[in-house]
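Q: What would this chain look like folded?
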Amino acid sequence: MHIATLGPSGNNHELIAKRYLRMRCSGEGSVTLFSQFEAAFQALIAGQVSHVLQCTAHATHRDCVGRYMHRAYPVDTFIAGSKPLALIAQRTTAQPTQVALQPATRYYTDLTAYTELIDAPTTVAVAEGLLAGRFEAGICAEEVLAQAPEQLRLVQSLGPALDTWVMFATTPLPASSPLRLDADGSSQG
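A: My prediction, written as structure tokens:
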């Protein structure tokens, strides 16, 4: 199995793709990261990868389902937890007024104390911005604290996000698959 998913390295898409290979494919297979899902789905259609893994919370999920209907089929779905997340701030900023976040994390905690919300493409980008001192605070993987304990402080531990994930391939599931629930309510196609 050769899974395409969203990068950059270190994000939850890569984490879950590797977990999938370990738990469902005995560790056999590989993961290729793409900067956009459009490119990942194009690689699937072109036969360069065998599967695409996408979190349903990703902003492009509905567009990808529509754009690749009848060419990329959902063949597996599951629930998986992300890396433990946290609201993290610079130690030098006692009361941060800005917070960086990947839009899907916007409601993971109360952010009403922050006057400026800064959208970032990924939680990895938030972590990089915190480490570079570009953001006063941000929501990202809690593990970033260990990289700069003298610079960053924990504001609030948020734990892992439980998301629904979909695996796509170019061949649909058979009508007899237990994952199929068709219009008549049965699992038959």
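The longest helix spans residues 12-24.
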